[in-house]
Design goal:
The structure holds 2 protein chains of 2 kinds.
Chain A lengths: L1 H22 L2 H32 L13 H25 L3 H28 L8 H34 L8 H26 L4
Chain B lengths: L1 H7 L18 H29 L10 H36 L7 H9 L1 H10 L16 H4 L2 H31 L12 H33 L12 H35 L6 H16 L13 H13 L1 H15 L8 H24 L1 H7 L3 H31 L5 H28 L13 H31 L44 H6 L4 H7 L1
Helix pairs in contact in B: 2-3, 2-4, 2-17, 3-5, 3-7, 3-9, 3-15, 4-7, 5-7, 7-8, 8-9, 8-10, 9-10, 9-12, 9-13, 9-15, 10-12, 12-13, 13-15, 13-16, 15-16, 16-17
Classes of the chains: A mainly alpha, B mainly alpha.
Chain lengths: 206, 550
Amino acid sequence: MQSSTIDSQVTVGYEKDAESHHHGHPDHRMFGLVLFLIAESMIFFGLFSAYMIYYATMPEWPMGDIELELLLPGINSIILISSSFVMHKGQSCIRNNDAKGLQLWFTITAIMGVIFLGGQLYEYAHTGFGLTDNLFTSCFYVLTGFHGLHVTAGLLFILAVLWRSRKEGHYSASKHFGVEASELYWHFVDVIWIILFILVYLLPLQ
Amino acid sequence: MSTTTVSEKPQHKERKLIDYFTFNTDHKVIGIQYLVTSFLFYFIGGAFAEIVRTELATPDPDIVSPELYNQLFTLHGTIMIFLWIVPAGAAFANYLIPLMIGAEDMAFPRLNAIAFWLVPPGGVLLLSSFLVGAPQSGWTSYPPLSLMSGKWGEEIWIVSVLLLGTSSILGGINFATTILKMRIKDMDLHSMPLFCWAMLATSALILLSTPVLAGALILLSFDLIAGTSFFNPTGGGDPVVYQHLFWFYSHPAVYIMILPFFGVVSEVIPVHSRKPIFGYRAIAYSSLAISFLGLIVWAHHMFTSGTPGWLRMFFMATTMLIAVPTGIKIFSWCATMWGGKIELNSPMLFAMGFVSSFLIGGLTGVMVASVPFDIHVHDTYFIVGHFHYVLFGGSALALFSGFYHWFPKMTGKNYNEGLGQLHFILTFIGLNITFMPMHQLGLMGMNRRIALYDVEFQPLNLLSTAGAYIMAVSTIPFIINVIWSLAKGTQAERNPWRALTIEWQTASPPIIENFEEEPILWSGPYDYGIDDEEEEEESVSDMLADVSAK
């Protein structure tokens, strides 16, 4: 009898531990996410380094008669950067247990993300140069395209959070790791864009 | 009384054989999955090496076609690196880290399983490239050569390396998080086993360098498939940029391949010498130093690629500096053995073999770090000899050392000591006969990656090939030992080596939950030969009594 009590305690203890240490500990998961983002940053670091070597060694940059239009990507940048602030509003809402607020602000963020991607596609259609025209155009498409893929991933992340919040009522003031994780990822995508915008759009202006 | 009841309770489920073939989140299952998979590829990569060495027994290309020869050495290198040594390091890390720090599993068990299940498809994909013409440009895949030979084989190589790299990154995230966040209460960083320190340093390297290779391969892929010219000089691109990106990963990669095994021997040597490790902190911090230095020396692979003189000086100096932390480790291991009661069993023989042959690989490493010498021996067999001393004489011997050391823990069976020692003797003799002559061949001017060579190089090549055959034979006692021990081996004790790290506190093999009760940190990981009667009485098992009796 006594041993069965101990047994159940031990079993419960294990399950509780398993919950807190392995599958649900936000602290661990956030740490893991940060490590993942460091790895992600290093891919961009590699691509940017290659770009910078070309920039530093090629006699003209951009090559050929290419001139990048700044207005559209400029507006796009403002939209993307502001979306980070909008998203943060959503996170503040869930901290106050306001799931509706979270859904509202995250929906706006998602719309802004879609506008950014739409703007990028519009830009691609109107640049007047192709992927293989020269080294600069290749860099342009590959860097912005790779970033666009990350925006898409971030967008899916946001949509997943929205879906879980709406359909399953997942998040609360005490439990909202998914919200914070998607936000961190979105900020990361933003920071990469700022660097990319400086390197690809502003640097060649000199 | 009640404690006994709890510990004897069959509260754990039985492990089934099928678990090892399915998506399982237990770190011990994943560790074994990694280990078995990596050894399957070791035999494939080894078979390729034997064909290459057979071809090189004579000066003429008469055994295989030149194309096949190129494919074989390309896949030999790729397999041994990405599908054997790196996954084997992950195997030990997966199996041991949670046990060593008293955790029930890795921080992210599902991610862990995903990381493993990227490896078999990556490997099968790589081998499938034979169907469309396997890559022929060596494991480095330097453009423009890689852009010119067999487009689809090369593309398969890229995708497969990207898969294996992703697996490696996911593993690195898991190892670092587990080590930093999931240690039992009393274990601070400085009472953590050195293997964990080594894996921490390795994980940092993986996270910082592997993604850069991914970047390089993405660009190479665009060149191959979409017709861009990032690395193609005919379109204005620069192949040297690829070399920079490639070596920014692949130089640290040699430390990704060796650091886990530095950790392994740091565990094996003190146990089998019955002495506390000499210079715990020195060994721990030198791993971090190696990681840091490893990240800033990549261009020493490119001394002949038109690097400016001042930059070559920088890379020469920093590269040579790595000899300092590495030397600290070598001296620490030797000092640990010094005056110890060394048991010359299989794990210790392999560990000692590791120290001596890795030393040779390390010293030739200092030689090739020197710009004038490197320019002379660049892309010759001297380099092939050097890195095989590091990777086979180093990583592989240490891998076998760890394999025998933890075999009783992982399988619950004792291995056959005689066969283990025979395995060591054949391997050690074989590796020296194979790789030592390569240094001389390189100094004489024999290029690497060629099937046709000048007749004056034949005697040494013949010797090297004979050594390769001895190495092939050495795997026979190894395989027999594993199969025989699993089938007929005696039941292993909980702690056959009377070791102090806490993975030995659990059953052999460990139960699914790892420990019957929360493990207790009752001494430092390497406090051998320290007499403390009170501590002895309080100890959780009879381990300390055994140690003192010794």
